[in-house]
Design a protein that fits this description.
Elements lengths: L4 E8 L14 E9 L2 E2 L2 E10 L9 E9 L3 E6 L16 E6 L9 E2 L6 H4 L15 E3 L3 E4 L20 E3 L3 E4 L13 E10 L6 E2 L6 E12 L3 E13 L2 E8 L9 E3 L7 E14 L2 E12 L8 E14 L1
Antiparallel strand pairs: 1-2, 2-3, 2-6, 4-5, 4-7, 7-8, 9-10, 11-12, 13-21, 14-21, 15-20, 16-19, 16-21, 17-18, 17-20
Length: 321
């Protein structure tokens, strides 16, 4: 057939409507087919090909459609016969070539351009070297991992890696800086408990008979943490003493972690049912840490050295990041 005159417009619909989750991989192509000044009508086989350059090279994609033409006008959906590869428009310029029936391919090839909203889609291709500003971050299959306050709520998850220069939460600011450091709100602590006791009674009290600081084995424990943590140690009990008798807690080698509590003056008779309360807050690193109650009894003059714990409860609260 005679080389036709071809005038066309190429529209690339790269966005889906709000009710459609998947972007359609089709290009809508409309054109006018004529021989000289005469608009053609009928059915024609038209081959469409996409190239990397305006001339030469082999097509990156091609398909042939049987196209109805009325008064020279036609409309086709490219990709409806041969699917368009997802990476076809991922890089560089692309050019469309059109060939009708057995005629040579028309020249010049037409450069494929974006529709307006496709400029926004370019931002989703990669975020390398740029900040991202979501309201929150959700990983498919894992749920939210960074909430709207910029706090990490995802726990330990396995997901596809995302390469970004930094992470910014809208309304919060930078939560991961350019050095990879967390700069958002403090991560919530996870709380665990360890308790020893209650131990001791009026019938079988725990005796304190030494005049040097000594571990009270009945109230000793160890805790293991895998991340930087804070130990909140508390001992509460009832003490019977006939002379100076003091208690404290030791966390690892730190015997001055908390306050002293007990009877700190000599008595002519036992002071019964003296309430004791000791607390200590100690930051610790990963590892195993010993928490022990210690006691000491001292005398004045010839007074008898004595001290007995009628009962007690040692509690260690572990706040782990």
């Amino acid at each position: 057939m005679k080389q036709p005159v071809f005038v066309a417009a190429l529209l690339a619909f790269l966005g889906a409507s709000p009710s459609v989750a998947q972007v359609p991989h089709l290009l809508n192509y409309q054109g006018h087919l004529a021989a000289g000044d005469t608009a053609l009508a009928g059915t024609f086989k038209i081959a469409f090909s996409v190239y990397a350059g305006p001339t030469g090279s082999s097509p990156l994609w091609t398909e042939t459609q049987t196209v109805p033409v009325t008064d020279g006008l036609f409309s086709v959906s490219l990709g409806s016969v041969v699917p368009i590869p997802q990476a076809l428009f991922a890089e560089g310029d692309r050019y469309l070539g059109v060939r009708v029936e057995n005629d040579p391919e028309m020249t010049p090839r037409q450069r494929v351009v974006s529709v307006g909203y496709a400029f926004r889609a370019e931002m989703a291709d990669d975020v390398k070297g740029r900040d991202i500003s979501p309201a929150s971050v959700t990983i498919s299959g894992a749920g939210p991992v960074i909430d709207r306050q910029g706090r990490w709520v995802g726990g330990n998850v396995t997901a596809r890696a995302v390469t970004a220069d930094s992470v910014v939460i809208s309304g919060v600011g930078v939560v991961i800086d350019r050095e990879g450091k967390w700069t958002g709100l403090p991560q919530p602590f996870k709380l665990n408990y360890v308790t020893v006791g209650p131990k001791g009674s009026a019938e079988s009290p725990i005796a304190l008979i030494t005049n040097t600081w000594t571990d009270i084995e009945a109230f000793s424990t160890s805790v293991r943490v895998t991340t930087p943590s804070v130990l909140d140690v508390r001992f509460d009990g009832m003490l019977v003493a006939g002379s100076n008798c003091m208690l404290r807690v030791r966390v690892d080698g730190n015997a001055l972690a908390g306050n002293l509590s007990g009877v700190d003056d000599a008595q002519t008779a036992e002071r019964r049912h003296t309430a004791v309360g000791i607390s200590a807050v100690v930051p610790v690193g990963p590892g195993v840490h010993d928490v022990v109650l210690q006691g000491i009894v001292s005398s004045v003059g010839t007074q008898f050295l004595s001290g007995r714990l009628q009962n007690g409860l040692l509690t260690v609260r572990i706040y782990a990041q």
